[in-house]
Amino acid sequence: MSGSSGRRKRKIRWSKLYSYGCFRPPHTLDSDPGQQLLGQPGFSRVVFCNEPQLHKAKPYKYPKNYVSTTKYNIVTFLPKALFEQFRRVANLYFLLAAVLSLNSFAPFNPISLIAPLVFVVGVSMIKEAVEDWHRFLQDLNVNSRTVRAHVGGGLFVEKTWQGLCVGDVVKVNKNEYFPSDLLLLSSSFEDGICYVETMNLDGETNLKVKRSSEATLDLANDQAFSEFKATILCEDPNPHLYTFVGNLELNCVTHPLCPATLLLRDSKLRNTDYIYGVVIFSGPDTKAVRNSTRSPSKRSRIERKMDLVIYLLFSMLLLISLITSTGFAVILKSQMAKWWYLSLQDDDLLFKPLKPGVSGFLQFVRALILYGYLIPISLYVSIEVVKVLQAMLINKDIELYDEVTCKSVQTRTSNLNEELGQVEMILTDKTGTLTCNQMEFRKCSIAGASYGGNINNIDRAASKRMNVEVESYRFSMDEFETQCQSFEMFDFSVADVSTKKAALAGQKHMQNSSADCSRISSAEGEPAIKGFNFWDDRLMNRKWVYRSNLFDVTMFFRVMALCHTGIPVDGDQAHKLKYEAESPEEVSFLIAAQEFGFQFFQRSQSVMYLKEFDPSSGKMVERKYKLLNLLEFCSARKRMSVIVSNEDDEIFLLCKGADKYVIFINNGRSYQQATTLHLSDYAEDGFRTLAFAYRKLDAVEYEKWNSIFTEAKTTVGPEREEVLIEASEMIEKDLILLGVAAIEDKLQKGVPECIDKLAQAGMKIWLLTGDKKETAINIGFSCSLLREDMKQFHLILGKESAASNRLKEMKEDILNQLEGFQKVKSEESNKDAPLALIVDGKALEIALRSDVKDQFLPLAVDCASVICCRVSPKQKALITRLVKEHTGKTTLAIGDGANDVGMIQEADIGVGISGMEGMQVSFEHDLRIARQPTYSLIILFSFSLVSKMLMLFKYSFLLRHYKHLLLKIAQAVMASDISLPQFRFLGRLLIVHGHWCYKRISKMILYFVYKNIAFGLTLFYYEVYTSFSGEVLYDDWYMALFNVILTSLPVISLGVLEQDVSSEVCLKFPALYQQGQKNIYFTWSRIIGWILNGIVASLVIFLANICTLSTFNKDGSFAEKAFAKDGNVADITHLGAMTYTCIIWTVNCQISLIITHFTWIQHLFIWGSIIIWYIFLFIYGALPPDISKRGFRVLSEALGPAPIYWLVTLLVVVVALLPYFIHIAIQRSFYPLDDHVIQEMKYCRKDIGKNNLIWEREQNNSVMMTQIGFSARVDARIRIMKENLNQKGQLIYRSVTSSPIFRSLTSSPI
Amino acid sequence: MRQIGVCLSPKVSLWFENLSSSLLLGLNLMEVDGGRILKVSSGAQSIPRHSRKHKAFYQFTQQSLPACKPVLTPAWVITTFLLMGVIFIPIGLITLHASENVVEIVDRYDTECVPEAFRSNKVAYIKDNSIPKNCSRYLKVYKHMKAPINIYYQLDNYFQNHRRYVKSKNDRQLLHGLGYNDTGSCKPEESNNGLPIVPCGLIAWSLFNDTYTLIRGRSELKVNRKNIAWKSDRDHKFGKSVYPFNFQNGTLMGGGKLHPRIPLSDQEDLIVWMRTAALPSFRKLYGRIEEDLNADDVVVVNVTNNYNTYSFGGKKKLILSTTGWLGGKNNFLGLACTSVGSSSIFISIVFLLLHMKNPRIL
Is A243 annotated as contributing to ligand binding? Predict the structure, then answer.
């Protein structure tokens, strides 16, 4: 901002522009009931401005401006985190087992139970700690931003945010965030107003005006603060964003303060050079912080189901423990007493034949611990590790990196990864999510002629597809019957389209747009000028001067250039200006006007200056327009007007507004009908339309009206608004329509494609927006949520019931409407006809009431798309919850503003758009933090604890985290589970990563269940052979290593790297995603199947080993026999090691059957695990017998040289895997699933080369059922075209058959 | 660094900048340095290329590591089953053959060795020390047995794997003798007159004490009773200077006694017995006959029937057995392999037929 424009701006009393504002009567003490409360409880805060030192001691000691979002601190971490961990049932069970294992009768030594538990809990806690550490760093980043604060003597120095104190006077510059809640003292504008963007707080994109108290207006420069002292008495900290009560005591005069004087933390200064403010609420007291809620911890569906599986396993555990203890008690009572070699004595409670019940019970407890391997202790920790790694890979995905904002996707909570693969409902916000809140001038219709192109993308894509089909028709000889006719028709339609194209010759974007169907939204090409995407040779480059109705065109441009509230700022180009205005629409109009040669370049208090292109002279001339009145936009009138007089003292009223509200009061001109037609065309393309009109006033009439208006403006009281509207309406009549302009609320890049993909993947998309209905419908069309042939239901409160404001009537109204819809729906002949529901906020409030929602929700869920407009943040959250509860489907909410926070937190998955805000955090600053060695050391240390494997990723973790620092996270992002830089990434996130993660996690859990059953049950079977005495087959070490080392890495590689199909194929076949929605990989039949598989495997393993070691006597009994050539017999150790070897082989080979994607990592882990087992066994055996005990030289001396050891391993592995192998062989050959077919096609290279048609056919089949989205819309259009063709064909046929010649030919007997 | 980054495609360079930023941060974890970027100048164009490590890491993060994706096509199914059959049937046949070559003579003697008069009360018989326990058994060799012939005793329904039993020993005491006084695990056979029993515990206490002498024709067969235990046990688990000086001196008499002058490492009967069997029916090596037995030889076994299995209904058997490369006689492995192999071939044929009948069309 250069000085000159600053000065220019300084001349304008902004408040005077808003013609109502300057006459607004000042607040008086008694007018506001809140003022009287001051000093009472709840309103007791005292702030000494400019004297922060007074706030260093009690009683005025307020918290520092340090904001903390961390869950723990160093002291509370241990108890709190431990408590969190042991809230998990499984962990509690293992804790109990560990405690019991300290007892003498426990089957294992305590270490082998405690170590895994410590590991499991430790890893989870470290994960918590690291996550909290990230939050801490993020806080640190925010807290160490700087702001200029007054240190005395009029000197302002940079101070960190956290160093701020209540009472500090700060100076905030343009586009900076407010460090805390400030009281506005003065601004760069004389009248002390400033503009504030509150996007982060409430999601509204319009700038808000804040106004300082009159008393402090003169504090306009740094020096003025050297002597400034004042006392503020105000309310206590509270979370209400829109209220504030306080008094400013300056020089013994009390001035009231209103909410308009309060600048809130998390909002941003806009359009204002600088402001001075005093800190009144700091840190945790600020309204923004008070308003934030910690996002609730969410658990994925699969994890919840996994709990049930764990319960199932637990009941299995109880069952076999019960069998063990009963068996033990029976044998103890009936037989064991006779076994003299046990020398049972009465002192041993564990084996007391006289009291078998007690011994049986103790045996039961022991069995619970012994068979604990059925409950996979490491499942939880493996899942945690896997999810963190998955999240990291998602974050690293370069395809999800936005080069514009330099941000990538951030999975903020990793425990919802697999939930991403099951989403069925997407609830999305509009502004900032689908659209980028940037308006572009796209088309206009002036005096009945439409400019800016006619064809929309849908037609273009449809015609292109028809072209292709014509080609294929030409080559197919089968359908020769209709061929000739259809040829002509197709050719005609294509020709039609191409003539249209030709008509718009010179339109640059047409060429590249038709080039590629898939690049739908980018088809327009990036406009050269931001906010102006308009191509028409008839208007561009001053060619409009040749139009016949030159006056209308000129007036049209004048309305654009004059009817607004914007101001020019310096542009980057020499002759082009940039503008700032309250709404982005106005900016785009100003830019468009500038392009057409009507440059608005200066505004003074009452004069607007234009540089106009004069058609007669062909030169730019400067013209002055006196601004007489400005009739502000209001929601009742839906239009705004200015009254200006030009240099010839002609007075014009220039008006722009919503079409309905402008056209209906114009006096009618010949081109009105044409304009209306254009309007509906534009609306279908999803453009926002505004009608322009003008009226010429004569001086007398104006004077008369002006006096009425001035009187209205000075009215005080509640009826003021109405009076003003009445006065405005008096003059805004008899308007002459000039035309309409179409503004595109620009969709973010790739949004339509993304929605298309999501729709094909079977997801339903609901649009929830705070915008008005028309805008919402516009966007619905532009991103293909709506299409022309859809039946639209509009659920809106009727005028009468809304006016009556009585609940009962409103309810009846809604119920009636719903009933009507149901009727229409049931009468609809075509059951698959797509329906759309459009609900208004007020109607929604009624519809969501408990007694109405049962009618409403089923209807809404049935509709292909639902659009809710004018909904409040609270309603968004409510809808989300109700939809989630009613349908039981996985919902995903996506939004960017703080108004979406409720929805994001309520949904199963909340996604935040990290947006464009806050990019300017200095990089050096972050590097400074990052360089501090202690932090990185702590991170290093904590990670080295996790496990060696994580070391590999440590560094990418760090990277992510430093990148993280560069982001200022908006509130929606803070509340979200995943943040995306752009909406378009949602497609890849869900369809690729979600799909993968879903399959990975479900396969992983099932395999875990399998492997623990296969292992745990062998312990049980062995009990049968030991008279249920509770002897353990395996060495303690084998047991401890099983889950921790020998089988953990392969399953982690399954969880992290498994891909059923590659990402490209995922995107080509979005229908694959439906596997996750139907949850076919984690059904109960699958779970039971895997449990049975585990049981079979354990039986095979155990029995084969027993049988191998035994010899069968003739009398049917069998006994252990010689083990190897030297005649020695195996003992428990050998049996244990053999069985264990078989288990390791079986479970590791089983996972290699599950994995379909082998990189070297999987190979390394799977085969490495098996090798590690042998290495371990060897090393363990080589240790002195004091340590290795029974395992001494077990491999080198006994097992290794024995051929049967190796032979039985081979046999067991094959037999144990045979059932599963046969199952998948049959399934793949005879009942293949979608992914199997695709895999096989890919494998046989059917996707490339000649057989491409099959590949495409599959692709088309997979998207057949979709109702919404771009492709579906194109399909529908093609269907309509074809129907038309058919009808024409039939018509011809009929005309031929009904012709007398034909009749005579057919009827004449031969 | 920056220059190189610029040459790369935007995405790659971005990723690369991440790497280089880690350098800036001084966190040189992956040993990233500029030197690893190789500049390959081929002709006029010089293309910057990542070193292999970088490329692999990039592929890893993008989940695009080269991978083999085996798909179970019908052809694979048929081949796999066929292959399994081809492998398993020969293995099974060889194993069966090996098992069939093992000659095994089993003789149960626990009931026969009780005199008729005591048959109704065997327990009283076995507990009465005054009655001589000698008994002779006649074994007929039905097939030529090649030396070495192992002599086993087999006990049935004897739970050596009972938890109370298994843990009732002290490994350290066995190795170091009285140096270790903590014999808590040996309960209830841990001490006698204030001194720990060596060797302590139920296992040692219940030592098997039947003895066998084998006579063929006139001459006594020499039974080698050395090297019947695992070598590692003898060398490392049982002390060379540990003597069972107070073994079986207690009030309650268990099984066999040990010679108090022979160190534990040479008491191989004990060592064999101390290897607790995995199953309730087990054999243990008694000794080896170092000469061949011919078919139709009759071997007279003089048994001293000391060990009490009568009180719990256990059986005692004497076994003479040769060993093959598979160890003792066992048909299970052979049968299992053969049946797995043949059923695999069967399944393979079924799949082949099904596939021929309605082949997969993609």
Answer: no
Residues 1133-1152 (A) with a CB less than 8 A from some CB of B: 1134-1136
Residue A758: alpha-carbon gap to chain centroid: 13
Give Cα A72 to chain centroid, integer Å: 27
Going from the C-alpha of B29 to that of each of A531, A953, A959, B12, B13, the distances in angstroms are: 46, 10, 11, 20, 19
Verify whether the Cβ–Cβ distance B70 to A936 is below 8 Å: no
Give the tens place of pLDDT for each residue, A700-759.
888 988 888 888 877 766 677 788 888 888 888 778 888 888 888 888 888 888 888 888
pTM for the complete prediction? 0.79
Tell me if residue A767 falls in helix, strand or coil.
Answer: strand
- pLDDT band at residue A1148 using 50, 70 and 90 as cut-offs: very high
Confidence of residue B121 (pLDDT cuts 50, 70, 90): confident
Consecutive H or E run containing A93 = helix A89-101
Residue A814: partners with Cβ closer than 8 Å, 6 or more residues away: A795, A797, A843, A846, A847, A852, A856
* Angstrom distances, CA of residue A904 to CA of A138, A291, A1085, B260: 21, 15, 33, 82
B269 neighbourhood in chain A, CB within 8 Å = none
Instruction: Using the predicted structure, report yes or no on whether residue A133 has a pLDDT greater than 50.
Output: yes
The residue that leads in pLDDT, B121 or A670, is: B121
Mean pLDDT value across chain A: 78
Query: In chain B, whose CA is at the least distance from the CA of A1243?
Result: B71
Residues 6+ apart with CB under 8 A from A758: A426, A765, A986, A987, A990, A991, A1070, A1269
- Of the residues A181, A202, A429, A756, which is catalytic? A429
**Dmax of chain B from CA atoms?**
110
A770 annotated as a binding-site residue: yes
State which amino acid sits at residue A354: L
Q: Is A351 on the interface with B (CB under 8 A)?
A: yes
Does the annotation mark A429 as catalytic? Answer: yes
d(CA A467, CA A483): 14
Sorted by where each starts, the structural domains of chain A and their CATH numbers stand as: 16-65+164-290 (2.70.150.10), 428-434+759-891 (3.40.50), 435-454+524-698+730-745 (3.40.1110.10)
pLDDT at A483 over 70: no
Query: Residue A305 carries which side chain, given as an amino acid letter?
Result: K
The reply to whether B147 touches chain A by the CB within 8 Å rule is no
Provide φ and ψ at B245, rounded to 5°.
-75, -30
> H or E stretch including A210?
strand A208-211
**pLDDT grade for A1211, boundaries at 50, 70 and 90:** very high
Structure token digits, residue B248: 């079986």
Where is average pLDDT lowest: A483-492, A1049-1058, A1181-1190?
A483-492
Residue whose entry in the numeric block shows the structure tokens 């109700």? A882
Picking from A962, A1122, A1189, the nearest residue to B327 by CB comes out as: A1122
pLDDT digits (tens, 9 = 90+) for A1043-1061: 878 888 999 999 999 998 8
What residues does A49 pair with on adjacent strands?
A: A230
**Cα–Cα distance, A655 to A957 (Å, whole number):** 57
Nearest to A593 by CA among A563, A560, A570, A621: A560
What contacts B18, CB < 8 A, 6 or more positions away?
A: A959, A963
Written as six digits, the tokens of A59 are: 């009683």
Question: What is this model's ipTM?
Answer: 0.87
Structure tokens that stand for B219 in this block: 């001459």
